[in-house]
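Hi U.,

Before I forget, here's the chain from the pilot set. I'm dumping it here mostly so it's searchable later in email.
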Amino acid sequence: MEETSIFALADHALNAVVAQIRDDQWDTRVPAEFARAGSAEPPTLRELIGYHAYDDAWVPDMLAGRTMAEVGEDAFKGDLLGEDPKGSFARIVELAVAAAAALDDPERTVHCSFGDYTAQQYLWQANFFRGLRAHDIALVVGVEPNLSDELVQGLWDELSPVADEWRTYGVMPAAIPVPDDAPLLDRLLGLTGRPPRS
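Structure:
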């Protein structure tokens, strides 16, 4: 499966979880593992989803090969969720998914804040971030992640060859051993340092 298709599945899975956040949950502080490096405390759920909106808002420009300086480093700063956080997030997701679907060169250079990568490599990172966060945030808000079999297979195919290398960069914690005959979702969760579901 192409990276762009997996991106759509991952971003839509995350959006499906966001759509189930209750009005009384937005100000809830999420568990410590969601805290960003250097933060004194973990974010609220609204702050966490706001960061995902910010990350997604950059996707069209990143995949077009534009630098942050060209776009304006503050282009997407501020509250992107507004008075309708679910609707605002869904609109940002659709723009990102459309940009991924329109990608015509997987070798195009993407200029991230942390270095230059091919569009393919950028999407691998994005797919991991969105797909696994859909799972993690679902558990926080008390809903089922419902990651499709296609998404789980796509993430496994992308991550299993690079997981050990990425682990050396601190991208994911140590793997949790899972039997080889376990369901693929459990193996994906274990590979990325998450307890299996079954």
